[in-house]
Write a structure and sequence with these properties.
By secondary structure, the chain is of the alpha+beta class. It has a single domain, classed as Winged helix-like DNA-binding domain superfamily/Winged helix DNA-binding domain (Arc Repressor Mutant, subunit A, Orthogonal Bundle). Helix content is 58%, strand content 19%. Strands 1-3-2 form a 3-stranded antiparallel sheet. The longest helix has 21 residues.
Amino acid sequence: MPEDFNIEALDDVIHGRLRLGIMAYLSTAGSADFTTLKAKTQSSDGNLSVQVRKLEEAGYVTVEKTFAGKKPLTTITLSESGRKAFVAYLEAMRKLIDDST
């Protein structure tokens, strides 16, 4: 096991496949409406809702519910603490990859 790699540095909140996909997409997009995020992550309404809620509870995203005319519109935005956590997650993964090559 590489000495610089610390398994504890991998954030369990981010590490789930769908949550990782959400964080990765939002890291470049900044924010997305629920429908776009659902399409980009190829997830179901229910699964995406649960995973977004977990990220929101961790403070990694904010969720804003508004209306576009009469249609509900949910927008998910990466928070500053979420961006920092995602960068730290990527750094931890980079250490594992760099040290194993």
